[in-house]
Amino acid sequence: xxxxxxxxxxxxxxxxxxxxxxxxxxxxxxxxxxxxxxxxxxxxxxxxxxxxxxxxxxxxxxxxxxxxxxxxxxxxxxxxxxxxxxxxxxxxxxxxxxxxxxxxxxxxxxxxxxxxxxxxxxxxxxxxxxxxxxxxxxxxxxxxxxxxxxxxxxxxxxxxxxxxxxxxxxxxxxxxxxxxxxxxxxxxxxxxxxxxxxxxxxxxxxxxxxxxxxxxxxxxxxxxxxxxxxxxxx
Length: 234
Fold this sequence. Notes:
Blueprint: H1 31-51, E1 56-58, H2 69-72, E2 75-88, E3 93-106, H3 112-120, E4 125-131, H4 133-137, E5 141-142, H5 148-168, E6 173-177, H6 185-200, E7 206-210, H7 218-224
Parallel strand pairs: 1-4, 3-5, 4-6, 6-7
Antiparallel strand pairs: 2-3
């Protein structure tokens, strides 16, 4: 097979799992019922990908509200109770974000549930996505480190810990999503790539990087209209 097929990773959530057509959409249930709903949505999307002939399938990010905040939920040192408004992607749009208020440490595994569900229920190669360190620090407020680069490398260490655990779960390919790479191009060269390499350090499974132009929300579509006929960010 010359070019194995896969998808970016994120897929729409069924309306019985989360409120449709919303960023950070609230869940429709809680507790064990929510876990079952996340599992069922994951299995449905695995089947759809297999039926479509996709070679490397994903769990569709069905168990997380947001590709960044879904990772942050299992990290000590982050205050979700007191969110603040912050400009995202060089102030392209604003969002309410949690704050880093203490040293960062993983409380436990982050994505073991959905990775193991997916691995158990498909014989295809399995890809799993994680946010990259530069994109994480652009989606959270710093009230502790006082240094973007230092905080990015702190997150890179935690990403590496979870990525190695996903590999042990049987994930064949770990993909890091770095939409911030098309925004802070000087910082990418200065330290962004190094932080990403730290996140992937020691992995023996296949790794990938996904760089995109963000969600199709009005703030992003308005920004894209300013780019002209040629988009040079890549």
